[in-house]
Amino acid sequence: MVNGNLYAHFQAVFQRRGDAPALTTADGQQLSFTELDQLAGRMASCLAAHGLVCGDRVSVQVEKSLSALALYLGCLRGGFVFHPLNTGYKEQELAYFLTNAEPSLMVCDSRDLALLDPLCAEAGVTTLLTLNSDGSGTLSDQLAQVSEPHPVVALPGDALAALLYSSGTTGQPKGIMLSHENLRSNAASLVDCWGFSEQDVLLHALPIFHVHGLFVALGCVFLSGASMRWLAGFNLAEVMTALPSATVMMGVPTYYTRLLAEPSFGDAHVANMRLFISGSAPLLVETFNDFEQRTGHRILERYGMTETNMNTSNPLQGERRAGTVGLPLPGVEVRITDDSDQPLAVGEIGNLQVRGENVFQGYWKMPQKTAEDFTADGFFNTGDKGQISEDGYVSIVGRAKDMVISGGLNIYPKEIELLVDELPGVSESAVIGVAHADFGEAVVAVVVGDAEATDEATIIAALKQQISAFKVPKRVVFVDQLPRNTMGKVQKNLLREQFANLVS
Ligand code: MLC
Ligand code: AMP
């Protein structure tokens, strides 16, 4: 029987590629495929030594590094469920994730130990280890003592590989259960569709706590045997230095607008590139056009989400149509329906639903919520509003869910409104997204309150204490009252129009 463990598929490629370089960092460190395989094996042994068994969660909030990558691979290899956390998350956010995911082990940066120690105790997490971006920490100390690689655990394909959280328009964040086969099948499709090969060098500047950098990027390279230029984050100077030695880049639209904003970016940087891929947020037609004009490359836009991995992609060969997210990937069914889940005619706008091996296993400990988001015939309702053209190209035209995407990160207004409403001097608030030249959308809080008792800076400072910086409104504006419809619902579209030019 074929081992359904995603790592077994990666390992077959690692063994084939042997001593070839798997990745090179900005400061010139290199790791071969064999070394990466050995590191993952020792990492899995190190985790198992803490008594972890298959299916146990490992929560990870660390900066991107080679060791962090090995931690992900070690979890897959040992059959432990990888639970990555955005490095920006603060106490309140972390407390919820740890209590809900119930990990057996957590890995954090040493600087956050004082914060995480009590949170782990509260959540019943028995082991807390540290891993710093320079490779130091208690996890690394223990790793240095391990010589025996852990075997690649045999698993069925539907075994859980990762747990990633997504907030919602109401209620608490939901844990999205992704299986080894969800990840493998989707990455295998992408390797095919995007033509990945051993000759490719992917510029990897994305964080590895979200689907894009973790499953899309790493899945494509590890299933194809491509190598990587491994950057700790999107630093414009480092990206420009690394680009000439890369053949493929993946990024959120902000990466492309930042490159375009740099006058010296041009032909010399893209001499070896064969493909620029964008996703996680809408790519403006203007960015697509400007990028083509500057570099001659038509950015390939694709569409996905945490629950489904990737659903559609513009073609490698064939027309990459600006403003669309392309065609359904092989094995992924995409349809547009009305609110009763009835398919709509070609060209009509409705709910975008998907079905296929890419779609997740359900929400962690929320069977009711899972049932609500699937139709009777097994389609997942994405919460995106879409349209499909006569020739099959999908466009995302809006969102049924109240969500802002800023620099490729999702922010749910409800979460911010609940916090703002609690602040002194605030009666009520509405949080919206408005156009932002760098982040695509920026979060703005529209507040009704006592301008004598509070002000913009006070509200922003208070929120910075409580939530990740990326969720904090870039601006807070005061109004006498919020516009409401006859049902009493705040008309956010009017606020978005009124404040459209507030930050751009
Ligand atoms: C950082 N800040 C942000 C932000 N990122 N604010 C809003 N939106 C963001 N995305 C905050 C910082 O904390 C800081 O706040 C201030 O804004 C300025 O920061 P910066 O130095 O300009 O930010 P930087 O570190 O350069 O990060 C920007 C970024 C990063 C765009 C490079 O956010 C990023 O890498 N985004 C990619 C996210 C991603 O991987 N998404 C994929 C999700 S998967 P202060 O207060 O400290 O000054 C998914 C599925 C799919 O969606 O389809 O792929
Ligand atoms: P996440 O919950 O972080 O996985 O975000 C997924 C959401 O990002 C999707 O439901 C879409 O709303 C949005 N998204 C991802 N890719 C694109 C894209 N290419 N164009 C428009 N929206 C996108």
From TrEMBL:
Q: Which Pfam families match?
A: AMP-binding (PF00501), AMP-binding_C (PF13193)
Task: Describe the family membership recorded for this protein in Swiss-Prot or TrEMBL.
Answer: Belongs to the ATP-dependent AMP-binding enzyme family.
Its protein name is Malonyl-CoA synthase
SUPFAM superfamilies hit by this protein: Acetyl-CoA synthetase-like
Q: Where is the AMP-dependent synthetase/ligase domain?
A: 11-364
Q: Which GO terms describe its molecular function?
A: medium-chain fatty acid-CoA ligase activity
The superkingdom of the source organism is Bacteria
Q: Where is the AMP-binding enzyme C-terminal domain?
A: 415-489
Organism name: Gammaproteobacteria bacterium LSUCC0057
Q: What PANTHER family does this protein's entry cite?
A: ACYL-COA SYNTHETASE (PTHR43201), ACYL-COA SYNTHETASE FAMILY MEMBER 3 (PTHR43201:SF8)
Which GO BP annotation is one of this protein's? fatty acid metabolic process
